Amino acid sequence: RAGDVAQDGFELLADVLVRTERSLGPDNGLTLATTQNYVHCLETTGETWAASTLADGLLERIARVFGPDHPSTLVCCDSLILLHDTREEHDEAVRLARETYERKLRTFGQDHAQSTETLGLLGRALLGNGEYPEAEEILWQAVEKRETTLGRVEEFGLRARQDMAQLYSRTGRNAEALELLDELLAIADEYPSDGIVNLGRCLWLRG
Q1: Distance (Å, rounded) from C-alpha 207 to C-alpha 191?
Q2: How far apart are CA 177 and CA 163, in angstroms?
Q3: Which of 28, 102, 135, 198 is deepest in the core (most CB within 10 A)?
Q4: pLDDT in tens, 112-157
Q5: What is the mean pLDDT of residues 21-41?
Q6: What is the C-alpha to C-alpha distance for residues 80 and 54, in angstroms, rounded to an integer?
Q7: What is the spatial distance between Cα 74 and Cα 97, in angstroms, rounded to a whole number?
Q8: What is the Cα–Cα distance from 25 to 31, expressed in whole angstroms?
Q9: Are residues 189 and 179 in contact, defined by beta-carbon separation less than 8 angstroms?
Q10: First-to-last CA distance in the chain?
């Protein structure tokens, strides 16, 4: 039943996108925002190739309309980083993450949540690319900056810690990986709304 509702919502959004683009044009702000939402829906339903193709064109359009350092452009860059990482295009994910992080520093500053989120994406991309020493440094920086800024543990911090546990496991530091995963499971109990997304993966990594 929930799947039927999700599919109905997905089809409705696709129809809204077609109508909005036809009425307002492809570069209208509302069209671009609706396209961004549609890309997100494609990501969450596992349609990564379609999402990536659409996001590539969307990024060019948003940058042309709003400029390369506009928040909408930078958020679109984050989506594209994740898609490159999912498709195991790690070199491209690292390149785009570094570029986007520098642009977010100019726009938001180093301690803003938007900047630290992209810093975490850079750490994940470096992990995927096998650049473990820099990935470890970047991931911990991202967690510390994010939680200092927000004053709490949240989903971003949980995901970054999962990436750290994976890094420890890949580099043979199994005791550290298990210790961190146990901490994650405890945090997931304390913060259930954030932990639900991560608990299954933690248990799988914990073995």
Answers
A1: 22
A2: 10
A3: 135
A4: 889 998 999 999 999 999 999 999 999 999 888 877 776 666 677 7
A5: 84
A6: 10
A7: 10
A8: 7
A9: no
A10: 31
The residue to which tokens 């491209």 are assigned: 92
Sign of the C-alpha dihedral computed for residues 138, 143, 149 and 155 taken in this order: positive
Question: What would the two tokens of residue 12 be?
Answer: 């409705």
pLDDT of 7 reads 63
Residues in the chain: 207
> How many Å apart are CA 56 and CA 187, to the nearest integer?
36
Cα dihedral: 127, 139, 123, 142 (round 10): 170
160, pLDDT greater than 80: yes
Task: Read off the tokens for 3.
Answer: 């799947």
Sole residue written with tokens 């990594």: 205
Q: Taking phi first (over 0 means left), then psi (-120 to 50 degrees means alpha), and beta for anything else, what does residue 153 get?
A: beta
Q: What is the DSSP letter of 200?
A: H
